[in-house]
From TrEMBL:
Any single GO BP term: carbohydrate metabolic process
Keyword Signal listed: yes
InterPro entries: GH, Glyco_hydro_17, Glyco_hydro_17_plant
Gene3D superfamilies: Glycosidases
Protein name, UniProt field: glucan endo-1,3-beta-D-glucosidase
Molecular functions per Gene Ontology: glucan endo-1,3-beta-D-glucosidase activity
Enzyme Commission identifier(s): 3.2.1.39
Leader sequence residues: 1-20
UniProt entry keywords in alphabetical sequence: Glycosidase, Hydrolase, Signal
Family from the record: Belongs to the glycosyl hydrolase 17 family.
Keyword Transferase (UniProt): no
Enzyme class at the top of the EC tree: hydrolase
SUPFAM superfamilies: (Trans)glycosidases
Length: 392
């Protein structure tokens, strides 16, 4: 009988059609003076069936509101705090104040120590990065939280000296020393390398050289890496694999890469080529389709790529070009900035439910998985019936 039970269990584990899009998250930035309160944001995320989010601080109002919800949360140690938390005692105090009171009611799964430190204009921060990461992790160990909360730092793609073709990926020489220390930490703790990857930037800088369809995940001939012969039909996957190759060049080929930010602006200045509502909708819609299939990259096809979209809202107080304030899937009042395939709350006060509704090959695949599950159940019942007859 145990063999039949194992077979039945195997059928269910292989065809978990109720799992949903488990590898998709969203960045919840708060640099705006007109954003909805955290409880409305939680309603929105719940309605969208999103279960992963990242914030850029440890806002206690957000952490309290998200308690006892289904949202897994990545929080951030702000850049200016790195010189402080590099001290183990200060790191322990930070974790004791900003993490421990909210965990585990609030599902904090990651701590981002700084953001894009390797390419920050303040080069002094780089010297603080690894000691701060080690101290924060040490504090988690001391408090018994290290098995539940991973520690890493999100990196800009500009940390790469070479990104094309992917197999030539390498880090900039000036950061290779600290990068090796950082990768050693990730390797020893099983934590992921987080990359902020934006095909939009590459297209904006070279619209005459880069195919818009390639950047947007649209159907296109793609490119073949001349050294590995791997075929890439979109730029994001090529960027991710370039990071994998860069890590391998430093001797760390087994670390998982996750996309901590990616997105496309719906509006930009006159010199920001490609920043349109149409392109933003196409990029995010196509990315959602890929995520529904739990795809991996050409180099790691069997390792689903975890991606966090940037961003949940347009943020009116962000500095820089117009595009910086127009990455949101939603306006601050809760209305969609454009239709990306998420049927969601019409306003921040709406109580209607929402879901991901995309017609794609992923939908067909889920139907096939369901059929396979039915076949497994039928086979189980048939086997069970035969087994019972033999008992009599």
């Amino acid at each position: 009988m145990i063999h039949v039970f194992l077979l039945f269990s195997l059928c269910f584990s292989d065809y978990g059609f109720i799992q949903g899009v488990t590898s998709l998250g969203i960045n919840y930035g708060q640099v705006g003076d007109n954003l909805p309160p955290p409880d409305k944001v939680l309603d929105l995320l719940t309605a969208l069936k999103l279960t992963k989010a990242r914030i850029y601080d440890t806002n206690p109002q957000v952490l309290t509101t998200f308690a006892n919800s289904n949202i897994e949360l990545i929080v951030t140690v702000e850049n200016q705090m790195l010189p402080v938390v590099m001290d183990p005692q200060q790191a322990l105090q930070w974790v004791s104040t900003h993490i421990k009171p909210y965990f585990p009611a609030t599902k904090i799964t990651g701590i981002a120590v700084g953001n894009e430190i390797f390419t920050d204009d303040d080069t002094s921060l780089l010297g603080y990065l690894v000691p701060a990461i080690v101290s924060i992790h040490g504090a988690l160990v001391q408090l018994g939280l290290d098995k539940s909360i991973q520690v890493s730092t999100p990196n800009s793609l500009a940390v790469l000296e070479v990104s094309y073709p992917p197999s030539a990926g390498s880090f900039k020489g000036e950061v290779s020393g600290v990068m090796s220390q950082f990768l050693q930490f990730l390797s020893s703790t099983g934590s992921p390398f987080w990359i902020n990857a934006y095909p939009y930037f590459a297209y904006k800088d070279s619209p005459n050289k880069i195919s818009l369809d390639y950047a947007l995940f649209n159907k296109n001939p793609g490119m073949v890496d001349p050294y590995t012969k791997l075929h890439y039909d979109n730029m994001l996957y090529a960027q991710v694999d370039a990071v994998v190759y860069a890590m391998s060049r430093l001797g760390y080929g087994g670390i998982e890469v996750r996309v901590s930010e990616t997105g496309w602006p719906s509006k930009g200045d006159s010199n920001e080529v490609g920043a349109t509502v149409q392109n933003a909708a196409v990029y995010n819609r196509n990315l959602l389709r890929r995520q529904m299939s739990n795809e991996g990259t050409p180099l790691r096809p069997n390792m689903r790529l975890e991606v966090y979209l940037f961003a949940l809202f347009n943020e009116d107080m962000k500095p820089g070009p117009t595009s910086e304030r127009n990455y949101g899937l939603f306006q601050p009042d809760g209305t969609m900035a454009y239709n990306v395939g998420l049927s969601a709350l019409a306003t921040s006060s709406s109580t209607s439910s929402a879901s991901i509704s995309l017609t794609s090959s992923a939908t067909k695949a889920s139907k096939m998985e369901y059929q396979s599950l039915v076949y497994c159940m039928f086979f189980y019942l048939l086997t069970f019936q035969v087994f019972m007859r033999r008992q009599h």
